[in-house]
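Re-run with default settings, no changes from the original entry. Doing this only to confirm the output is reproducible before filing.
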Amino acid sequence: MSPQGETQGGTTPQPSEIQKQVVAARHDLDRLVGELDRRRHAMFDVRGRIGRHPVPFILGGLALLTAVSGTVALIVARRRRHNAWPQRVRRLRHAIAQAVRHPDRSRDQPSAGKKIGTAGGSAVASALAKEATHRLLQAAWGH
């Protein structure tokens, strides 16, 4: 069909022929949309997937359980080692040595991270106060 609505033979198609083409195109689209909908439902049917393929889900669950259990076990073991008497004595000895070597340094001074966090929080608070003041003044003056 050319842009002017004529077929290659030079004649315009009959309305009934155009209607048949439209009906056929709608039928094809309905079939495609139905297939896409079926595939979407199949993709997100978790219970169905678990029922069809239980072994990978069981293995994945066991792997996840092992990873979480291992992480918890490592954290507990590290905390126990950290709180053991030899470690506590070693940390105390190190702290005393630092205090003797550098009496001017204090543990009370904030770290660089705390200073950066304080500066960021101050900047945010300042911006919020400025915006609140601006809105109050606009409301009071009616601008």
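The chain has two domains: 15-108, 110-143. The radius of gyration is 37 Å.
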